[in-house]
Amino acid sequence: MAAASAAVVRKAKGEASVPTVPDGLKWDKAPCRFCGTGCHVKVGVQEGKVVAIAGHPEAEVNKGLLCVKGYHVGGILYGKDRLKHPMLRRNGVMERISWDEAIDVAARKIMEAPEAFGFYGSGQWTIPEGYAAQKFMRAGLSNNHIEPNARLCMASAVTGFVSTYGVDEPAGCYDDLDECDVLIMWGNNMAEMHPVLFSRVIDRRTRGEKVTIIDCGTRRTRTTEFADHYMEFRPQSDLAIANCIAQQLIAREKWDKDFVEKHCAFRADENEAEPTLMGVAISFDDFKKRIAKYTPEHVSEVSGLSVEELVQLADLFADPKLKITSTWCMGMNQHTRGTAINRLVHGIHLLSGHFGTPGNAPTSLTGQPSACGTAREVGTLCHALPGGRLIAKDEHRAQCEEHWKVEAGRINPKPGYHTALLWEKFCTPTDQGGDIRSMLVQVTNPGQSLPNLVKLFENKKGLEDKFLMVSDCYPTPTTELADLILPAAMWVEKNGVYGNSERRTQQWFKMVEPPGEAREDVWMTIAIARRMYELGFPGMRDASGNFLFQFKDDSGNEIPAWEYERFHEINVDRSLYEDYRPLSHMKHKHVAPYDVLVKHTGLRWPVVKQDDGSYRETRFRFSEFDDPFVKKGNEFEFYHSTSGDGRAQIWFCPFERHPEEPTDEYPYWFCTGRVLEHWHTASMTMRVPQLRGAMPNAYVEIHPDDALEAGIGNGDEVEVSTRRGSLKLTAWINGRGSPPRGSLFVPFFDEKRLANLLTLDALCPISKEPDYKKCAARIRKV
Taking CA 402 as the corner, what is the angle to CA 401 and CA 404, rounded to the nearest 5 degrees? Predict the structure, then answer.
């Protein structure tokens, strides 16, 4: 796979270039298949195969740069073990079957108990794929047991945004990285997990600009090497640190009184033992009393940071002349109090006034290419509907029923099971309360990514009345337990639309054919729905008796897209996306028209049509200077405020200890995470020889002093155990990362060494997101 640059014809600023065809290569644009950064690549195709990848020079996200995974993204299509044919398990053996039989089996299995069916996808679903799944479940089955694996990584960010601003996703954008004076990373190893974004900051230093980088973390990483200040805190104590910053701002009278009085309100849980999404209003005086105990002296004892470090953080937020950007990812989200720590970081930005101007922003970074665009905006979570709507709200269900042309009451008013509960119910015998009997998995690998894997996945073994259908591109731990395997097209083998971490919606076209009989996930969903329609299932008809999914060409002729030989006669993606787009308007998430996206490397919503017919994106939401929905003269306006008065909420959330801390029997903290070379469960990146060779297997990081005490040397085989299981790994001492004494770190990409056999399934009580970063463990030399 060559990394190459394409000859291009320049178009207007902000528009994608028109490719030329030198040396027989045809170039086109696409967002990278990996993380939520949303880098854009140029894809070079020759003789029906992707042969070259280049960073897109006009892409605002990456400006022509890619990370090591991005430069090899084309290689993920060509692993030797691609799944190419549908397979059905008969008498314990997987046998090849036809697509007609596979679709029929799936449809009939769902029809056996439609209320007991679960649909599990991810932030790798494209927007049209997620929207089709939404419509299939909510309008077709009257079933809300649909979830994305974004529940495992971004749910706490969602609840943090919603309970603070009344609407999800960041107010700022990546431009803040180009403008900030201070970048604070909260448990966020940006140098490895979002390296292209981190390079934007480091590049500023090479130009002579001063950017103070603060790494607040529980383990030294590649990011730490570039930081001006590394502040190592005890796991879970980030809650206390954020409260300490707020305490000092108030004690010194250094909060932004004008901003807070005009634009903020205060909030807390009515009962701290039973936290809720919306809480109750409190006064500033009440907030001040609650926060008072989080002094630097007290929090130093709790967190392990020095008084001087805590004062230093407060000094930064107390300085109105500085521009401060905070970023975070899994360290804050995969947390038993994930919603709380998200709220608190938003709160210190609001309290200090470091909000809403370029360089001043609290920004969550996502791990999947469309966790924002699909899981969050399309709303494929068990409690959600498109465009920020909620299953629990009568008005929101009615709006979707009208839009989908189904009778009133079709959408079930009861939210479905969140991810951990969905899989627990599927892996529990039916006669013991396991009321999920069949599951369809698309674009994700829960057999490796779920926490507490024995309980939430492997217990499916031997349950004869449970039926698992898996659409994927490669064999994975998930396909090992599948009863039906559906071979999937991937990335540029299909059309697609993603939405990245900065609200940027990005479109691409199919460029090459998938191998064998692999087909698009969106077609599978439509085909299963059509087969159910043919078998007489009433839910697959709208109120007029027509099939739920209708597609017409430009002349108004209906195209039977469920017939694969007719599927490509129209752009099904465009049809589904344009059907979804009006639903994005309720909470001012106006995504750009499909045909406009075709011309760009992405546009940040809300995208509003101008008087001259052009479309303008929004960089900074809630700020009058840039957001067209802020009323003139308001300066800032949180127009979906939960308090109904245009104000953002500054929350008090108490520090709370973790439910499974180290003990004499299990004396170490255990943490999982990612590595630079591999993306999540590595089912794609391990098929790229260069990436597999650079990082072939998982390991355990241990502090040198802990290793010395345990008699462990670099490269020794060790056994790491928690209350849920044990794993044999190679010890890595003073390697790429370095945990403090009493801590272990294991990456979770290795399917032969499943780190999630060890993790616990304790959840944030509000977001229902698991904590992969903290549990108790022990280690011994084998």
Answer: 65
Enumerate the active-site residues.
69, 153-154, 330, 367-368
User: 178 exposed, middle or buried (CB, 10 Å; 0-12, 13-18, 19+)?
Assistant: middle
β-pairing verdict for 87-90 and 776-781: unpaired
- Cis amide linkage into residue 662, ω under 30° from 0: no
Domain boundaries, position 52: 2-78
**Half-sphere exposure in the Cβ direction for 225 (13 Å, CA):** 11
Residue 354 within any structural domain of the chain: yes
End residue of a domain, out of 652, 687, 719: 652
Q: Are residues 163 and 115 in the same domain?
A: no
Q: What pLDDT does residue 3 have?
A: 44
Give a yes or no: residue 588 inside a domain. Answer: no
Helix (H/G/I), strand (E/B), else coil: 571: coil
Over 80: is that where the pLDDT of 595 sits? yes
Could you tell me the CA-to-CA distances from 585 to 161, 594, 607, 634, 639 in Å, in that order? 18, 15, 10, 21, 13
Helix or strand or coil: residue 68? helix
327-336: per-residue pLDDT in tens?
A: 999 999 999 9
Read off the pLDDT of residues 269-309 as tens digits, 9 standing for 90 and up: 999 999 999 999 999 999 999 999 999 999 999 999 999 99
DSSP string of 664-730, one letter each residue: SSS-EEEEEE--SS--TT-TTGGGSHHHHHHS-S--EEE-HHHHHHHT--TT-EEEEEETTEEEEEE
Q: What is the pTM of this model?
A: 0.96
Which residues make up each annotated binding site for [4Fe-4S] cluster?
A: 32, 35, 39, 67
Per-residue DSSP letter, 471: E
Binding residues: 32, 35, 39, 67, 69, 124, 149, 153, 236-238, 330, 334, 445, 471-472, 494, 521, 672-681, 748, 756, 773
**Mean pLDDT computed over 187-208:** 97
Going through 482-587 in order, the beta strands assigned E by DSSP cover: 484-487, 496-499, 504-508
Residue 586 maps to a domain: no
pLDDT band at 20 (very low <50, low <70, confident <90, very high): low
82 contact partners, CB below 8 Å, separation of at least 6: 473, 474, 487, 515, 516, 518
Annotated binding site for substrate: 748
Residues 236 and 274 in one domain: yes
Yes or no: say if 303 and 233 are a contact pair by the CB < 8 Å rule: yes
CATH assignment at residue 744: 2.40.40.20
198 and 330 both lie in a single domain? yes
Backbone angles phi, psi at 464, to 5 degrees: -65, -25
Nearest to 169 by CA among 324, 280, 341, 36: 36
333 in Cβ contact with 155 (< 8 Å):
yes
781: in domain: no
Taking all residues of the chain, what is their mean pLDDT, rounded to a whole number? Answer: 96
3-class SS at 263? Answer: helix
